[in-house]
Structure prediction request, 340 residues.
Amino acid sequence: MDRYKRQISVIGEQGQKLINNATIMIVGLGGIGSPVAQYLAAVGIGKLILVDYDNVELSNLHRQILFNEADIGCYKAEKAKDVLSKINKNVVIEAYTKKFDLDFGYSLVSDVDLIIDGTDNFETRYLINDICVLKKKVFISCSILVSIIQLALFDTKHLCYRCLYPNPPPIGVIPNCSEAGVLGTVTGIAGTMAANLALNYLLKIENEKVSQIRIIDAKNFNISSMPIKQNNNCFACKQRKISLGYLQNQNADYGISLEQLDKTKHFLVDIRQKEEREIAKLDDDLFFPIKENTDYSFFLSYKDKKLVFYCASGYRSKLFVSELRTLGIDAYYLNERLSK
Prediction:
């Protein structure tokens, strides 16, 4: 226990045992997930499960401090496992270079004590929440918009993320970090606080305060908290209307790969913003940048075509396709990231 004696002075040997026996899953190893993983490995979490299907890019390095220039092009989860194993060889680490989808996520969370969402897209955040409701698992949500950090823990038995935000925002309303930008130090603050909240939960510290959302402004260091109460209209944790069958229907995948794309059959539509087209561009048939007030009915005139939409990562286009399919439009999305 010499390795942990400085923290044992604070939490005691029993507290250290709680940490050593815990299993935590981190979904997303970006600006938030990187420091979360580093600190949890350092304090001696018994087992870390790392999930991220993305590769390291040069633009990641100012904030994702697990990685360096030699790692560019490598899978984040695999490189993170290598680095964390050198930080603490006693931690059992599983790394998955796979997207967190329904089947994979549902099978993986059974034996975890806590899930930390370090992603920057609403699709995955809501899926994590809904799986946790079904499996009665605790999860921490941590997100950033430029300099504003939101941090909360949901036990999902008595309240969940949908109690606070019942549905994802419309496409284009809230940008992710690649669209809005972020300072690396802000993601470091967010990740460190998320790791600390995870330890508070495991050690049963300040449990009366966990049902709060913390809002931190990294520009002026203002911190505010707002109590979270179960929403009696929440169809997830209160009304228990979420089932595995419901999630399977909601997460039906209409993605196709570049290899499957056939310009003789498919009508390709770019829904990114104009400045994004300078980075990478396909041979598309239509440029249609989506906005907050996008009129989906525009594509009713294209109902005779098999439409394929694309964006930088596939996230916006997948949500866009979901909206179009409610109008009876035969729509698909490109499920690959665009190469620069």
In short: Residues 255-334 form a domain with the Oxidized Rhodanese; domain 1 fold (CATH 3.40.250.10).
